[in-house]
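About this split. The held-out portion is used to measure sequence recovery: a designer receives only the structure tokens and must propose an amino acid at every position. Recovery is the fraction of positions where the proposal matches the reference. Here is one held-out target exactly as it appears in the evaluation file.
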């Protein structure tokens, strides 16, 4: 169709995971649409359909978040270019060449990580500390006696007897489907075989001769990224670490968006499950490839994730988690064949899933409790340890895994409490006008001169700061493309510290400092963080808008309110130690996080990153059967607090909207940084007076 002037009708197209959107004329190729909207989509051959770098995945269904209903006929049929394509990356699973597929209606298009020029920086490492190795699966080389005429026992019994004699392993079971494998291995190995024994009870695999390595993989299935660690089960060595974007992002940036997608598209949970399982299978291939290993060597997996991800990778319906009472399909630990998750590994490979704690506090939080030792408090309370409690028992410790749904664990006074808080995706760049994920070119550090109001910043992939020699030359390759989560936290905190924003989060509010960087933006004001002309770079100006500030305030207030609620239940007013977990938490500047009011006041030296605590906990559970059992027992003792049912949550939330807080004092933080006086004016009053004062100032 065309408009009266003869131009093709325009259609709305949304690209994920970037969230960039805009209207393009019908017949525009997906590659051209991506270029028009500034979407990161690779192409080497210039759109000739040769290189295959521009592969995309059109997605169909009703997307309430985007206001789009996308049908299969909203993208062109496969063209001869795609039919003739024979590039290195084959077109699979509905993927299309962006240069050949054209837009015929409203559409949501996912850009896979491998099609992005600037791929996601997966910043998840693992540190299991001084772990006592106690693997659930061991390899044992055994020599099995030849059969004789005076014995009337079968080969399975000979094998079991030999393991008892040579390894002091008794009462072992051998599954019926292993019998033929035992026969073949004994024949091929000249009666010398290696067996894999799981949980000290069952022979699960057998090979002729010596087999000296069995591998396991620990995976943290996050809503944004999936990170895995390949380990040697015999030595505990981490042989490879890899991460990938969670492909479910194309169905929604945050968990509730994905639940909504399933609700509005019945049966689509199968599609989401297939997507994450495919990503897990690819991750396994990536890990074994890094270690020059094979999938057949992988015999054990441990999986953790928040409840929604937990349900989706297991193939359960996540929609009951979309509203009270947030009913879990299953909350206990699970052991199931890896093959049932559509992951290729050894036929005997098993997947262990840690228990969930509550409706929105998942197996990933259980892993955090395991890796940080918070569960020791619960063990002491239960009297499981005969040794006297350590002095640290009275220490109150908080661990927060900051993400689209923040998980909070507070331990002290012999108790462990857990809750989740709906922070949303703002800290990951969504809902922020210049926000983006942590890719090269993203601003990750910000400082604002309190006298001049001028900013300086640092971007991912470039070492110098923006005001240092060499920055412009180094930044040409990446550009300055947006602001990632750590940068968002810092710029908001810095605006307040520089008195360019008031306590209520109003840019240019009452009694704030004038600055040429603050400019009118409709009925409010915005702060110019980056102007490419000032540094001789290409690109768009990056502004921090009033709506951006509000999005961050809402997110941080939800997190703080959840923490404060747990403190109420524990009947405390101070916290001795705070740990920030997760890939995002690992890169937050702890001083700025406290200035913002993300967490309560605490000794700055005891507010630290605890790294990828969920991945570390999963790895500990992979390498230690006793640790795996202990976390199951600890989870049973954790007190679950449902923030949605607590009347005090809203009061805490309202107070926490202020920067850093409406009433809370920050004596510990004040020893490290001079805090401005907080305005007592209301947000509405400040906003109005700020607009009036700025307009008058502009007139002068």
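Reference sequence for scoring:
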């Amino acid at each position: 169709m065309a408009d009266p002037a003869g131009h093709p009708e325009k259609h709305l197209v949304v690209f994920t995971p970037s969230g960039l959107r805009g209207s393009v004329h019908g017949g525009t190729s997906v590659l051209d649409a991506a270029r028009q909207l500034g979407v990161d989509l690779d192409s080497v051959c210039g759109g000739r359909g040769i290189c295959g770098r521009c592969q995309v995945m059109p997605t169909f269904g009703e997307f309430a978040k985007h206001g789009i209903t996308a049908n299969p006929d909203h993208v062109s049929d496969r063209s001869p270019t795609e039919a003739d394509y024979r590039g290195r990356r084959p077109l699979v699973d509905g993927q299309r060449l962006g240069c050949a597929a054209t837009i015929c209606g409203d559409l949501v298009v996912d850009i896979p990580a491998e099609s992005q020029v600037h791929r996601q920086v997966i910043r998840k490492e693992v540190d299991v500390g001084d772990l006592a190795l106690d693997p659930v699966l061991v390899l044992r080389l055994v020599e099995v006696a030849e059969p004789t005429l005076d014995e009337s026992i079968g080969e399975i019994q000979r094998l079991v007897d030999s393991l008892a004699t040579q390894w002091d392993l008794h009462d072992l079971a051998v599954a019926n489907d292993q019998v033929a494998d035992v026969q073949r291995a004994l024949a091929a190995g000249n009666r010398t075989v290696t067996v894999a024994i799981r949980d000290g009870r069952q022979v699960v695999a057998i090979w002729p001769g010596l087999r000296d390595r069995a591998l396991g993989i620990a995976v943290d299935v996050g809503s944004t990224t999936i990170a895995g660690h390949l380990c040697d089960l015999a030595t505990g060595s981490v042989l490879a670490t890899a991460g990938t974007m969670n492909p479910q992002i194309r169905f929604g940036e945050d968990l509730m968006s994905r639940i909504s997608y399933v609700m509005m598209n019945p049966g689509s949970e199968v599609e989401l499950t297939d997507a994450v399982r495919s990503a897990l299978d690819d991750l396994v291939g990536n890990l074994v490839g890094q270690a020059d290993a094979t999938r057949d060597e992988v015999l054990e997996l441990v999986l953790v994730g928040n409840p929604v991800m937990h349900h989706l990778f297991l193939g359960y319906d996540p929609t009951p988690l979309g509203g009270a009472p947030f009913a879990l399909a299953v909350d206990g630990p699970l052991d199931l064949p890896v093959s049932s998750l559509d992951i290729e590994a050894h036929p005997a490979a098993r997947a262990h899933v840690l228990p969930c704690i509550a409706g929105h506090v998942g197996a990933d939080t259980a892993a955090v409790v395991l890796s940080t030792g918070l569960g020791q408090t619960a063990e002491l309370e239960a009297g499981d340890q005969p040794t006297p409690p350590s002095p640290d028992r009275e220490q109150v410790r908080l661990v927060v895994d900051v993400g689209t749904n923040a998980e909070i664990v507070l331990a002290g006074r012999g108790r462990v409490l857990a809750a989740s808080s709906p922070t949303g995706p703002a800290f990951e760049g969504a809902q922020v006008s210049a926000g983006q994920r942590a890719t090269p070119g993203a601003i990750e550090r910000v400082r604002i001169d309190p006298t001049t109001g001028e900013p300086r910043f640092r971007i991912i992939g470039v070492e110098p700061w923006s005001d240092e020699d060499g920055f412009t030359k180094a930044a040409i390759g990446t550009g300055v493309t947006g602001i990632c989560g750590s940068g968002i936290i810092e710029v908001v905190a810095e605006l307040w510290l520089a008195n360019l924003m008031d306590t209520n989060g109003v840019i240019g509010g009452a009694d704030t400092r004038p600055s040429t960087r603050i400019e009118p933006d409709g009925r409010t004001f915005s702060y110019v963080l980056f102007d490419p002309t000032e540094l001789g770079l290409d690109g768009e100006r990056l502004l921090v808008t009033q709506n951006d500030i509000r999005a961050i305030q809402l997110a941080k207030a939800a997190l703080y309110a959840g923490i404060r609620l747990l403190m109420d239940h524990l009947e405390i007013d101070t916290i001795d130690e705070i740990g920030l977990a997760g890939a995002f938490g690992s890169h937050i500047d702890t001083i700025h996080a406290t200035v913002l009011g993300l967490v309560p006041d605490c000794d700055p030296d005891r507010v630290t990153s605890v790294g990828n605590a969920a991945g570390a906990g999963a790895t500990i559970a992979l390498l230690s059967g006793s640790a795996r059992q202990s976390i199951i027992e600890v989870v049973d003792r954790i007190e679950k607090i449902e923030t949605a049912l607590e009347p005090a949550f809203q009061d805490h939330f309202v107070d926490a909207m202020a920067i850093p807080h409406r009433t809370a004092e920050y004596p510990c933080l004040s020893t490290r940084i001079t805090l401005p006086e907080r305005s007592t004016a209301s947000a509405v009053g400040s906003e109005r007076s700020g607009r009036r004062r700025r307009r008058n100032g502009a007139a002068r």
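Annotator remark: Confidence is low (pLDDT under 50) at residues 380-393, 681-700.
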